[in-house]
Prior knowledge:
Elements: H1 2-10, H2 22-44, H3 50-75, H4 93-112, H5 124-133, H6 136-153, H7 158-176, H8 178-185, H9 193-205, E1 221-223, E2 226-228, H10 234-263, H11 267-282, H12 289-292, H13 297-311
Antiparallel strand pairs: 1-2
Amino acid sequence: MLLLVLAPALSLLWSSGAGGDARQDLLIAAYCLLWCYFGVARVLARRNDLSGYLVVLILLAGNVAAAVSLLAWGLADDTGPARLVGVWGIDNPVHASVLLLGSTLPVLVAVAAGRARWWLLALPLPLAFALLAGARTAAAAYLLTVLALVGMHRPRALAWVVVAAAGMTVLAVAFVGIERASEIWLARGLSYRDVVWQQVWAAYQACSALLGCGIATPLSVELAGVEGDRAHSIFFAALYHQGLLGLGVFLGALGWLLLRGLRGDAMQVRGWAWMLGFVLLANVTSGDHVLVRGSLFWPGFWIPVMVLAARGGESSPPGRP
């Protein structure tokens, strides 16, 4: 965990063009905040159920944002964008989808391990939101995570998951129509991700292979004739800003937390591990803001990291699930 914080912080030393760039301040503040979370978790974990409080907060925020976005989309003019409008500073409904899908996973973990059968009801709304928003990577990551989760805890229910997901997809297509569904899911192709990643790779090759270009060095890419500063992948962003060394530390630390959480006895801790796994998959094509500046991805990404760092591998207290 120490390396996870030190690697990007030290890369400020070889950043170029960072001068008075606000990214430095944001980066330092963000990582200090991460350590504050870590410290608070260590203290409160001895007295209260911190994970439970965080689950409730994330669920409330995710579901309220989803409901508002769905309402705004339903009232929007037919000539508007095919994807759901943003809400509360979420300038892309895909971001809301990632947060909402991730927020349901702790609930699925808690009930999938028991005998309750109503847990599949947690699937439809988040999945419908992602389908209507066009969050293709997030939806695929969610289904993969849920299938793995159910396969581990309730393998006989795998068929029901497939049926529920297929049914929700059919209903979503019927709701918006085949033409609009095609516009949301197919017409966008790769959304220029391959073009952006080629530019990020070329920019990285101009810097140090081991150390990258520096965490505060701005990235410049061209997307459909518009200049941008995003790698559109948390992994490409880590490679560009921190090089092979930083990327290795990043993946190593998160992989260690993930495995330790999944092997823990406490179901609640395992729930956060599943959530972290989903976030890593969903951020294959996005989420790079969690490394270089603040964004609404921060809670969804770093809270699971914080909880697992503080409580990963713990056993359930006697008499509690």
